[in-house]
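*** Backbone structure tokens ***
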Amino acid sequence: MQYDWNFGRLLPYVHAFAVGTITTIGLTAVIIIVGSVMGIALGLILATRTGRLILYPIVDLLRALPPLVLLLFMYYTLSEDVIGFAVSAFWVAAIAMSLNLAAFVGDLVRAAIDNVPRAATDAGYAIGMTRRQLTRHVVLPHVVREVIPGLTVLYIGMLKMSTLASVINVTEVVYTAQTVISEVTRSLEVWTVVGAIFVVLVVPATYAARRIERWVGRGPAAQ
């Protein structure tokens, strides 16, 4: 039997999909900003011996937990029964996914700092650079070149993993799709639309990431 495609049934839900897309973008932006700030701070601490001893068990725990498990744990933890007030589902998702991202960003930053060539720092001191000048002109450029490729992969991954927020009723694209499917029996069309939305969001982001990688000198050779 040939399937009878009918996208016309979805026209009344264009606004709902638009709102879901905006929510997805907003959630991803919050996750990236908060997770990156936390991750950079975490990476700087992990670059010290004491920081590694104290924080590595926490980082390893966050990296080991599946994002969905972490999301559900935070959902039930940040509830009125546990903390005395309820945190909105959007911010529960933002907090949980930010923690997940921060663990990976922190380890990226730590590894980049550890990989600064000793010869480069010795040369900087040899020509009379202060510690601040060395950090600005030697360490920081090296760390940026090291972390950018990994960060772009993580950020695009966060955009796709934001769909997990549908589990706790955040009205992003997938939750919107599930709501629409419950009202119209056109599942294949709905998921086709969802797939198209993510193609439109992810493909330009991927090309932008490649351009950034080339710009910092770590991606494929510039054309």
Q: What stands out?
A: Confidence is low (pLDDT under 50) at residues 219-223. The chain has one domain: 14-215. Residues 14-215 form a domain with the MetI-like fold fold (CATH 1.10.3720.10).
